[in-house]
Design goal:
This protein has 223 residues and is an alpha/beta fold. 33% of the residues lie in helices and 18% in strands. The strands form three sheets. The protein has a five-stranded parallel β-sheet with strand order 2-1-6-5-7, with helices on both faces. It has a two-stranded antiparallel sheet with strand order 3-4. The protein binds adenine. The site of adenine has 12 residues, from β5.
């Protein structure tokens, strides 16, 4: 069972996320374990200071090394992967999610403010990941995104009927359109082929729609 520790200054941001939906069920079924830690637990001064002004000047604050080193030293295990969420990290993709789902122990560090002391990145981080080309106010939601995407690759987390085989990015095409009842709704009808019961025709139609959608929205995936 993959064990995941999250280090953050905003632990409550993850409360709802961990309780809900497919991930919550996976946690209940012990298919993975996620523990959220408040980094301030490893501060030692009475103000529980986790950040300080940057050497060399400049705006904003920088996360101090001491609490992060202390937290890592307490939590890390032989062979664990220590990951820092940052907009200047390597792109987080479906392939990375799948690889991480097979790790035994992950520690996800969420960064804050204008950055973190470089010595943290050099000594207690194995991998830096970005979830996209935009800047969040802190990395906690990025950690949630990583956990959500990787838990779908853990056997048993998705039900049989939700298997990964037909989904976007596994076959490098975007998804085909889906419809459910009613067949007629406010003058809009479901494509006839989907009601036909002809599975070969349905597969052909879906493949064509997926290709068309990918050409329009993500032509880069077809290269
Ligand atoms: N922290 C702030 N922005 C981020 C991003 N885009 N990806 C990962 N961590 C982040």
């Amino acid at each position: 069972m993959p064990r995941i520790d999250v280090l953050t200054l905003f632990p409550r941001m993850l409360d709802g996320f961990l309780a809900e939906s497919i991930l919550g069920k996976g946690l209940q079924k012990d298919l993975l374990s996620v523990t959220v830690h408040d980094l301030r637990r490893w501060t030692t001064d009475k103000h529980r200071t986790a950040d300080d002004r940057p050497f060399g000047g400049g705006a904003g604050m920088v996360m101090k090394p001491e609490p992060v080193f202390a937290a890592m030293e307490e939590l890390q295990s032989e062979g664990c992967r220590r990951i820092y969420l940052t907009p200047d990290g390597a792109p987080f993709t479906s392939a990375v999610a799948s690889a991480l789902s097979r790790e035994r122990h992950l520690i996800l560090l969420s960064g804050h403010y204008e950055g973190i002391d470089q010595r943290i990145r050099e000594r207690v981080i194995d991998l830096e990941l970005s979830i996209g080309d935009y800047v969040l106010t802190n990395g906690t939601l990025a950690a949630a995104v990583v956990i959500d995407a990787l838990c779908r690759f853990i056997p048993g987390v998705l039900g049989e009927e939700n298997s990964l085989t037909h989904e976007s990015f596994t076959g490098k095409l975007l998804d085909f359109p889906q419809y459910t009842r009613p067949a007629e709704f406010r003058g809009m009808s479901v494509p006839q082929v989907l009601l036909s019961g002809n599975h070969a025709e349905i597969e052909k139609w879906r493949a064509a729609r997926a290709l068309e959608k990918t050409r329009i929205v993500r032509p880069d995936l077809l290269k």
